[in-house]
């Protein structure tokens, strides 16, 4: 079976870039990305490529090439489902905020809505692809809905989790370590797998396309994120020990990373991992383990989250204790709000918890981030419900310029590793700050020797 028409439900951080690359690499396939969020679709269709709703290096070029040719963004979900032979579901699967599994389980209501809509609209056979990250065995729930509420057409369900990281999404999609496709072991299932393999084979070498059964594919995604996050929590745990013992966490990372069994990636100590995936997926994994009665497995993975929360907490505690145990009324400048560099995404960013802690101490926080807009920062804080929206706007201010953001401040805190922070005129920043002027580098990116020569008092995560 040759795929000619793809529909992707969900035009977010995954659906948008992923399908843009599919369209670019498969000019003979019509790709339509749909979403219930009309503003998001309008932004994807904006003439001005700077206004795309997702910032990713290189994405504008991909969209420019394919949009209007074989890549379309639309709010007409029914039409796109009806026309497609293959439908990707790439909607959000956040942590549940209510009922059973609250704060742990993945909320599958958006997935279920998609399945019901596909069942209702489809008049021809379809391959339905899970692109969202889902608990293991979700495919059977989707299959149940499709088969019991549909119009008697045949559905094949595949799992094709996405491994892209934000900030490098386009590169990750163009040159993936692997593409994982899980499907039924039946003949029809194998044919569906092959149809999706053929799509990727337009640009991904065959040996990097891995096919498995559905459950292995679903569980591999949660496992990959758990392992990656576990590395960050492990090195962050060592960072605290480094600070006490006089070791340097960068030197420790390098020393252990040269062991080929450990490997050098994902060993950068930080103020804590953020992003929409790690926490959500580990909590989900913990929940699944508990559901099966695997308490020890659940406890093991939960430690990764506990360590991460501790890392964020101890960073704000360090700021308060260093500033003579009070930050009340003091201006503290945040460089960065995004959860990592080269993205405008702030979901679960460490900056949010660190800011909230400092605001509780009555600090005045001033933020500069090259890509994150003011409304997003306030929305992140308001979501916590710690204080009134008016109070958040009174205590936290947002600047478009790092020099203005740091003027008259007592301390600078680096929350995101944006490259431009390294190139600032730090003498100028120092001259306009209260003394003693402090820098808290939560990402270990600044040249501490240079800063100290200017007169700054410096703290870097993981350095004794
Ligand atoms: P997102 O919130 O950016 O996008 C999801 C989109 O789906 C939203 O625009 C929303 O309006 C839309 N949507 C929800 N319900 C819908 C419906 N019924 N019909 C049409 N549109 C609907 O989320 P995301 O970051 O793109 O993540 C999507 C999935 O991919 C999640 O399961 C996530 O875990 C997974 N994932 C994310 C990343 C990442 O880096 N962000 C990486 C790998 C996997
Ligand atoms: C992650 C996975 O990497 C990706 O495969 C999956 O598809 C989605 O989840 P993402 O969250 O976009 O991607 O970014 P990632 O590069 O993994 O970083 C996550 C967080 O960990 C960031 O806050 C980052 O700053 C932090 N991190 C990462 C560290 O603190 N140290 C590291 O060494 C690596």
Automatic annotation (TrEMBL):
Protein name: UDP-glucose 6-dehydrogenase
Domain UDP-glucose/GDP-mannose dehydrogenase C-terminal residues, every copy: 333-448
Domain of life: Bacteria
UniProt cross-references to InterPro entries, sorted A to Z: 6-PGluconate_DH-like_C_sf, NAD(P)-bd_dom_sf, UDP-Glc/GDP-Man, UDP-Glc/GDP-Man_DH_C, UDP-Glc/GDP-Man_DH_C_sf, UDP-Glc/GDP-Man_DH_dimer, UDP-Glc/GDP-Man_DH_N, UDPglc_DH_euk
SUPFAM superfamilies reported in the protein's UniProt record: 6-phosphogluconate dehydrogenase C-terminal domain-like, NAD(P)-binding Rossmann-fold domains, UDP-glucose/GDP-mannose dehydrogenase C-terminal domain
EC nos: 1.1.1.22
Species whose genome carries this gene: Gaetbulibacter aestuarii
Organism placement in taxonomy: Bacteria, Pseudomonadati, Bacteroidota, Flavobacteriia, Flavobacteriales
Keywords: NAD, Oxidoreductase
Pathway entry: Nucleotide-sugar biosynthesis; UDP-alpha-D-glucuronate biosynthesis; UDP-alpha-D-glucuronate from UDP-alpha-D-glucose: step 1/1
Reaction(s) this enzyme catalyzes, per UniProt: UDP-alpha-D-glucose + 2 NAD(+) + H2O = UDP-alpha-D-glucuronate + 2 NADH + 3 H(+)
Gene3D superfamilies: Cytochrome c1, transmembrane anchor, C-terminal, NAD(P)-binding Rossmann-like Domain
Sequence similarity: Belongs to the UDP-glucose/GDP-mannose dehydrogenase family.
